[in-house]
């Protein structure tokens, strides 16, 4: 179970209409939403991995400490939600080192995992995995092996793999399920809110039973917040993707905690305690 800790105004699809320099003046709702998530996870006996933006951690250090105190893994989502594919190698290295050091200082635990904003590591910038390894990360969950207009690496392996051999970084892709020869997104995001819950549950159970693999699920704090501010100027497609079924999301997350056994990424894939 993974949570990408960012706020509604930091979503990549809103970048054309929300200026980055306006972030500090916008209503930030992430802290209250994280409290709701922590309560849901505690009630369900679930420990998760929180891929956290450095920008958020810097402003809400007590929230980060509550995540750690709940027994969850603290991992990096970069500092300022910049796509890896939009950065040079040097810029990316600075970003991931900055966020790692900041999160470790606040959380008091080693940060081993990273997830690129918008799953923005793919065929054109696989060098980013080497940079992560050089910076001290042990795993990444930055590749979604599907075709999508904003992200995706359809030819990537469906399950955890070492792109550069066992001495390198472990990449743990977001879960997909096979229906015949068709690869279906099964790991969360807008698909989870749009599709019937029973279909998402079936796909993840199929991955568990037929493939014998754990499912990687992700969601965002703003997905549990139907009352969030709605900026003007977003396209119809963006509005649909962002707002569809927000009011159902909390109930669906509670169902997930009942229907599956979940744990932190580092425990499942790295064997940490």
From TrEMBL:
Coiled coil: none annotated. InterPro entries: DUF3473, Glyco_hydro/deAcase_b/a-brl, NODB_dom, PuuE_HpPgdA-like, XrtA_polysacc_deacetyl. CDD domains: CE4_PuuE_HpPgdA_like_2. Residues 20-273 form the NodB homology domain. PROSITE patterns: NODB (PS51677). SUPFAM superfamilies: Glycoside hydrolase/deacetylase. PANTHER family: POLYSACCHARIDE DEACETYLASE FAMILY PROTEIN (AFU_ORTHOLOGUE AFUA_6G05030). This is DUF3473 domain-containing protein. It comes from Massilia violaceinigra.
